[in-house]
Amino acid sequence: MKPIHVGLLGIGTVGGGTFAVLRRNQEEISRRAGRGILIKAVADKDVERARKLVGGSAEVTDDAFALVGRPDIDIVVELIGGTRIAKDLILAAIANGKHVVTANKALLAHHGNEIFLAAQKKGVMVAFEAAVAGGVPIIKALREGLTANRIEWIAGIINGTSNFILSEMRENGSSFGDVLAQAQKLGYAEADPTFDIEGIDAAHKLTIMAAIAFGIPMQFDKVYTEGISKLTKEDIRYAEELGYRIKLLGITRRTDKGIELRVHPTLIPSKRLIANVEGVMNAILVKGDAVGPTLYYGAGAGAEPTASAVVADLVDVTRMHTADPEQRVPHLAFQPDRMSDLPILAMEEVETSYYLRLRVLDRPGVLADITRILADQSISIDAMVQKEPSEGEEQVDIIMLTHLTVEKNTNDAISRIESLPVISGKVTRIRLEELGRN
Questions:
Q1: Which among 121, 138, 341, 415 counts the fewest CB atoms within 10 Å?
Q2: What is the pLDDT of residue 237?
């Protein structure tokens, strides 16, 4: 049978990995796909570098728009990143009747609704396993493996850079700034690490997973996003003493009032498997009503782990290449005309537990004032620790863990506590999730 011809847009880290994996495992891949999958042409700005990488086994051009219009190309793989040119190229490929494979989570989080609608109208597929958690097959699990389930919630470590930083801070007692510099030196963090450390990258991925889990449109603009740059080694140490670890989590949950969409540092009981995911690894915990909690773990980035997901998508598209579009798995798991308009909860309406750290003057009656304010906001305390003051100091740290409460009540309580004359500086607040069966 005639091989499927692929047009590759971008042969950087992931593009190079995709080319290498396809070439190395060509026989195994063709046995699974039922026909060969060959990269026919590559578009890259650096033509000379691209030619050295492909070694004459594919055509090379610097004109990506010409490539996506070629009649001899069946599937376009977009690995250039960004949201402007990549969007134009993908829409042009779809308009030309090409199936698309992409690893571009930012593009899908911002423009996925438009792209999937265009693909549906044209009867082509857009596959994006590599857009979330690199080589971890979480998209296929949500779209197909768990299709019998009503997904209840997802909680994921979906950014390797931030997880590396938090792991090193916990392991070595280092400050955030020192570990960030180390991550940049090792190549785990970009020169401008904002997308990683402020939770934006994780929010892109959470947007995609929530859409598939609950059958809702992509709504990146409604994700509450908070990063790790303000975390201190003291809070990581205190959390450890209390039996918790701090991870940057992407959390989406179905509630009676709507869908939660939030990314923020989170205390997790150290006995949970996901709390023990260290370094640059990713892990996603999915709770389905029938299957219960399931955990997906692996490399969330890197040339060949991500290429593994890209090539898996190529095999899927090849298998379904000639299938009736009505018989294919929908892009977002649910039939396009059965998508839901469930509301996204504002963060202040979310119910969770909290870690609160207060720096207070060591005076009689301080605790009574604080607990009275918490009680006024219907916030009950689960655990509390008061640290001994250092020699010659008049201030001490008080750490409190609360039971479940609504965020707006916590906001009001923190505002009132910070106005007390015995409080020094701001109250540190970190959300806490048990991540049990419920």
A1: 341
A2: 95
Rg (CA), the chain: 24
pLDDT at 437 (0 to 100):
60
| C-alpha atoms less than 13 angstroms from C-alpha of 61 in its C-beta half-sphere | 13
Does a structural domain hold residue 381? yes
- Check pLDDT > 90 for residue 438: no
Indicate whether 171 and 293 sit together in one domain: yes
**81 is a domain residue:** yes
CB 78 within 8 A of CB 88: no
- Tens digits of residue pLDDT in 364-381: 889 999 999 999 999 999
Instruction: Choose the catalytic residue: 98, 140, 205, 287.
Output: 205
Helical ranges in 103-254 per DSSP H: 105-122, 138-140, 160-172, 176-186, 194-197, 200-214, 233-241
Average pLDDT rounded to a whole number, residues 376-398: 88
Where do we find the tokens 């490399």?
299
**310 and 14 in contact (C-beta within 8 Å)?**
yes
Q: Cα–Cα distance between 243 and 397 in angstroms, integer?
A: 18
205 is known as an active-site residue: yes
Q: End-to-end CA distance of the chain: give it in Å, rounded.
A: 50
Please report where in the chains the tokens 């975390």 appear, as a residue: 231
Asked if residue 149 and residue 270 are part of one domain, the reply reads yes
CA dihedral 122, 80, 328, 149 (to 10 degrees): -130
Which structural domain range is residue 108 located in? 4-135+303-338
Report d(CA 372, CA 377) in Å as an integer.
9
